[in-house]
Amino acid sequence: MKPVIFGLSGPALTDGEAAFFRDVEPAGFILFGRNVVDRPQLRALTDSLRALTGRDDLPILIDQEGGAVSRMKPPEWPAFPAGAAFARLWDVAPASAIEAARANAEAIGHTLAEVGITVDCLPLLDVRQPDTTTAVAERTYGAEPLQVAAIGRAVLDGLARAGVVGVVKHMPGHGRAVVDSHLELPVVEADAEALEQDIAPFRTLANAPMGMTAHVVYRAWDAERSGTLSPTVIGEVIRGRIGFDGLLMTDDIDMKALSGTAGEKAAAAIAAGCDLVLDCWARMDEMVEIAGRLGEIAPESRARLDRAMASVTRAEAAGIAPLIAKRDALLALA
């Protein structure tokens, strides 16, 4: 098994993709809007991935946060709110914000489980700052670490109730980034004392099954390399100060914050201490290069992967209408 999660080019596996994935055996797959049509199609796609790999516990990921970051959209699926909706409710009634976030996440989880998706790249534990890039700000759960951790824990719990694994992101914190890492490399100048606020929610939820890195340079920790490529950030901060021992994947290595070829970035991320590389865009030449640069998944990384996928049990199918009604009634308080 290669320590990489690959994207797919369309709504069904191509013959070329099937042959390549069968030969390479990536650790998992991630889906985007280009892979999503309707329930029967999406279930057929995820079933085909399991049949191809022979793995019932295959990680099939998606970014279904709500708001702008939603791959499964109306009218086929319900619209879900972005994280800031729960932050606003917290200002009025913190306990209600926690319950609303849990109900919302459970509803999301059931929509994913119904079509065979097992991992949601949620919750964000980034602590919002006054100048947080707009690419992140509306997706966050607030500006206070305790609040972010409490809502984040409820999201993890809601997803798990539906039989879906959550991914905490973006470790060790994207809230101080004032530019979009999809487009350029953010550099954070805050000192180590200030950065304690950023890592606090991740430390609180250090037992989360999966985490995702941030393509951000933190000058206080490593002035030369982004978190994704920094042995210092991964080893001393994420594994050390935060105490995270779950499966650690990169954010998408195609993002413009990182430079180099796809294979060079993938190899550097694994060398820095990431368990898995996330490569989203299904460009065959880049996937071939990545597969050629990466060895087999490390035993400790495979153990973390297996542990993460075993962290939730398959839930019974459930109607989501009561969960959405509960969420909406609570959000109305704000």
Helix content: 40-55%
- Oligomer state equals single chain
Span between termini: 47 Å
Number of helices: 12
Total beta strand runs: 12
Shape: globular
Characterize the largest beta sheet: strand count, sense, and whether it forms a barrel: 8 strands, parallel, barrel
Strand order of the biggest β-sheet: 1-2-3-6-7-9-11-12
Structural class: alpha/beta
Which parts are unreliable, with pLDDT below 50 for 5 consecutive residues or more? none
Strand portion: 5-15%
Order of helices and strands: EHEHEEEHHEHHEEHEEHEHEHHH
* pLDDT averaged residue by residue: 96
The radius of gyration is 19 Å
Describe the structure.
The protein has 12 helices and 12 strands. It is an alpha/beta fold and 334 residues long. It has an 8-stranded parallel barrel, surrounded by 5 helices. Strand 2, helix 2 and strand 3 form a beta-alpha-beta unit. Helix 4 packs parallel to helix 6, helix 6 packs parallel to helix 7 and helix 9 packs parallel to helix 10. It starts with a strand and ends with a helix.
Quick overview:
The chain is α/β, with parallel strands linked by helices.
Task: Give the SSE map.
Blueprint: E1 2-7, H1 15-24, E2 26-31, H2 39-53, E3 60-62, E4 64-66, E5 69-70, H3 84-92, H4 94-114, E6 119-120, H5 134-137, H6 145-161, E7 165-171, E8 187-188, H7 192-204, E9 210-213, E10 217-218, H8 231-241, E11 247-252, H9 262-272, E12 276-279, H10 284-293, H11 299-309, H12 321-331
Parallel strand pairs: 1-2, 1-12, 2-3, 3-6, 6-7, 7-9, 8-10, 9-11, 11-12
Antiparallel strand pairs: 4-5
